[in-house]
Amino acid sequence: MRRTWRWILGALVAIVLLAVLVLWLLLRGSLAELDGERPLPGLAGKVSVERDALGVVTITAGNKADALRALGRIHAQERYFEMDLMRRSAAGELSALFGAKAIEADKRMRVHRLRARTEAQLQDALGSDPAAVRAYVDGVNQGLDSLTVRPWAYLLLRQAPQPWQASDSVLAGLAMYADLQDPSNQSELALQRIRAVVPPALYALLAHDGSEWDAPLAGAPRGNAPLPDANQLDLRRLKAATDAAGEDADAVGSNNFAVAGALTADGRAIVADDMHLGLRAPSLWFRVRLRYPDPQATGGQVDVSGFSLPGVPAVIVGSNGHVAWGFTNSYIDTADFRTEPADAAVTVHEERIVVAGGADVRFPVRETAWGPILHTHADGSGDALRWVAQLPGAVRMDFADMARAADLDQALQIADHAGIPAQNLVIGDRSGRIAWRLIGARPDRGPHCAPLGFNDNQANQGCAPWPIRSDAAPSLIDPPSHRLWTANSRVVDEATLATVGNGGYDLGARGRQIRDLLATQERFDEHDLLAIQLDDRAVFLQRWWVLLQEVIEHSDDPALKRLGTASNHWDGRAAINSTSYRVVREFRTQVLDTLTDALLAPARAQLGEDFLAPRLAQLEGVAWPMLEQRPANLLPPAYTSWDALLADAARRTEAELSTQGPLAHRSWGERNTAAICHPVARALPAFASRWLCMPADPLPGDRDMPRVQTPSFGASQRMVVSPGHEADGIVHMPGGQSGHPLSPYWGAGHEDWVHGRPTPFLPGKAQHTMTLVPVH
User: Fold this and answer.
1) Smallest Cα–Cα separation from 79: which of 45, 62, 59, 55?
2) How far apart are CA 235 and CA 626, in angstroms?
3) Would you say the pTM of this structure is higher than 0.90?
4) Which pLDDT does position 449 carry in this prediction?
5) For residues 326 and 529, is the Cβ–Cβ distance under 8 A?
6) What residues have CB less than 8 Å from 133, skipping those under 6 apart?
7) What number is the average pLDDT over the span 655-676?
8) Burial (CB count <10 Å: 0-12, 13-18, 19+), residue 592
9) Tell me: the pLDDT tens digits for 497-520?
10) Closest CA to 551 of 513, 500, 591
11) Residues β-bridged to residue 427
């Protein structure tokens, strides 16, 4: 009997080992090829592909088409699944991979019919060099076909990857629209509904669009909101719903700034750029250097390094030896709702959503000349949305021409034709000049059709459906201060804002902190600008710490005394070991949640199920005057005094943190711990998903400071570079180059990103070299 059990146990072990071996061999079969000579049909000549220790790729080719064909091959072998997610997320086709749980997400995007629109507008979207885009697409499919086994994520999902098309590269660009702009335009619609049911003075507070923290490049700070008196607004007399739930506001990010040659020792302009987005493993971006002859480039040669977006044949941000450039999201108003009457002319498009493991879902999209109807009312009328991403020209591949720009003027000419989401471009050239320009697709509403943003009081029902444009954009070239900065907050003056509109731009505290740091020095180098990017000082929260100490000093409550002991030493930074930062941040959140609930409660009561929560990015400019002036008419009805409100917020802070253990141990790093994983990790059990995640490191930084950081949102890249001095440049990138957990480049460079250690901008010494050869 013992021999029998030993035999059975041995057989089971052998089966398990065999299964592990088969799984390991399958996973290895989808690893990217790194060395040797490989055929690549369509090439005109040999192409060299080098990888350094971090997997940064250098492609040296005989022409642009060959370089992009090779780039497509590499993108496919390292990142095909992630590319697939981008095109599917934009087109509303995720259900074909993930099944019924993705249907609602697909519907939210399918209503825009972006695949159908892309295919109808494809030739324009491919830009002036469609052959180069098609070479990239062919390279993608050749790279996918060259893998011994389909990419590992498809094995897990029991799916087969579908071939890449030229329209998919356009959809990858449109996926960035969906990430950077709100496809549902909820805040604008929410404020329109609120405006209809609350007193004008209350709406003015909710829609206030600035604060004392504003730091625009042009114009003055908007300042804090003036508070209404009791005759204009008294919250105690309004019917209010009490079921509001406070939530942390979404983090927003991205900083870029530059100094001109007048502020550097040798006349170099330096550009810093850190694009803050949702974080994942692998990174959203893919680091690459492209080198090839080009008769239209200075000296007949392109040599561009930076960050590419797998799925798109271009270096998105970087430097080419003559100009360096980077982006932040502009948050101009890029979408307008219009209420269409019940008898409006409507075209119905029957969309078919393919569902893995289930029946197809038929999804009718009702569309007017203005745009698709997102909401239908009981009387038959509907809210139609016009959004720039729906329109011809939203994506054009011509921005890839930045690789050959010779100087600032030429780069700005290229930017004027950029088919990308509206961005703040900051650029510097080799001569030391710098510029800011609003680039990308924006509504061309016309002179009598104002943006339906947070401040407009007219419905503009008479406006014709507008086209989009990207030229003649606002700019600031060669600023007298020799400094530029943007950080998703208001950049322009009031006259320009009236044209471009407010799409929910961020509080100005982060931009002001960058501006103030730039003003403290008269000489800069790359490390000085990196230090600004990594600044985690809590300048914005200093006054909230003072307020909390005042609340604690005037109370005998033991809970508040415990809170005081935990927070009495103000660290002044969002440092991983700081308890006081975490306490003060939570206190502010509790206060703002209370004020938000009170300000929105009358609208909730009036609107019921039609209530939508707006994003109140500028609430600080309303809340702080309320806390300073403490008017009785704006005191939330649940409280007898402002002191009682603040004491209650402090007690809730103590209770919230104490449930997790002793207050002294509640560090910011405990709360702000990295959760950066592969997209399929959430579908796996915890013991398996950890293999698809980066380490759970405590992370410094937070919102409203240059080092924006939450567990899964933050700097998707950092770059500090001077054109012509790329060897002195610095980068960071989380998540690594490869999407394969067995690759040596899975997570490569991530640790430097966590700790802020400089990584060279240019690729290092080649560790692997592959030669791609034509097929004759």
Assistant:
1) 55
2) 13
3) yes
4) 84
5) no
6) 68, 126, 127, 166, 169, 313, 397
7) 95
8) buried
9) 989 999 999 999 999 999 999 999
10) 591
11) 325, 435
Is residue 650 scored above 80 in pLDDT? yes
CA–CA separation, 410 and 361 (whole Å): 49
Contacts of 319 by beta carbon, 8 Å cutoff, 6+ apart: 271, 304, 305, 306, 325, 721, 722, 723, 726, 729, 761
Lowest mean pLDDT among 323-327, 374-378, 382-386, 688-692: 688-692
Strand 335-340 relative to strand 323-329, pairing: unpaired
Rounded CA separation 646/587 (Å)? 9
Could you tell me how far CA 669 lies from the centroid of its own chain? 23
Residue type, 40: L
Contacts 24+ apart (CB under 8 A), 724-729: 724/268, 724/321, 724/322, 724/430, 725/268, 726/305, 726/319, 726/321, 726/761, 726/762, 727/760, 727/761, 727/762, 728/525, 728/526, 728/761, 729/319, 729/526, 729/760, 729/761, 729/762
- Other residues' Cβ atoms within 10 Å of the Cβ of residue 77: 24
Q: Is 714 helix (H, G, I), strand (E, B) or coil?
A: strand
Phi, psi of 506 (to 5 degrees): -80, 165
Closest CA to 55 of 707, 731, 690: 731
Instruction: Considering only the C-alpha atoms of the chain, give the largest distance between any 2 of them, rounded to a whole number of Å.
Output: 93
| Average of per-residue pLDDT values in the chain | 93
Q: How far apart are the first and last CA of the chain?
A: 66
Residue with tokens 């949305």, as numbered in its chain? 385
Identify the band that residue 521 occupies on the pLDDT scale cut at 50, 70 and 90: very high
Which string of DSSP letters, residue by residue, matches 322-342? Answer: SEEEEEEE-----EEEEEEPT
Rounded Cα–Cα distance for residues 369 and 365 (Å): 13
Q: Which amino acid is at 179?
A: D
* 315 DSSP β-pair partners: 308
Say how far apart CA 198 and CA 205 lie, in whole Å: 11
> How many Cβ atoms from other residues are within 10 Å of residue 25's Cβ?
11
pLDDT-based confidence at 682, cuts 50/70/90?
confident
Q: Given pLDDT bands bounded at 50, 70 and 90, which one contains residue 17?
A: low
**Do 271 and 425 contact (CB within 8 A), yes or no?**
no
The b/e string for 476-512 (b: 16+ C-beta within 10 A; e otherwise) is beeeeebbbbbbbbbbbeeebbebbbbbbbbbbbbbb
**CA 269 to each of CA 116, 518, 533, 675: distance values in angstroms, whole numbers, following the listed order:** 43, 14, 17, 36
The total of other beta-carbon atoms located within 10 Å of residue 244's CB is 19
Helix/strand number for the chain, H first, E second: 23, 25
Which residue in the block uniquely carries the two structure tokens 């080799």? 430
pLDDT value of position 448: 76
